Amino acid sequence: MLKIKNLRCCYGNIAVVHTVSLSVRQGELISIIGANGAGKSTLLAAVCGLLKNWSGEIEFKGRPLNGMSAPAIVRQGISMVPEGRQIFSPLSVMDNLKMGAYTRFKKDGKSRVAEDLDMVIQMFPILKERAGQLAGTLSGGEQQMLAIGRALMARPTLLVLDEPSMGLAPKIVEMIFSTIQDLSHNGVTILLVEQNARAALKIADRGYVLETGKMVLQGSADELLVDDDVKRAYLGKDYGDFLDERNQ
Question: What is the pTM of this model?
Answer without folding.
Answer: 0.90
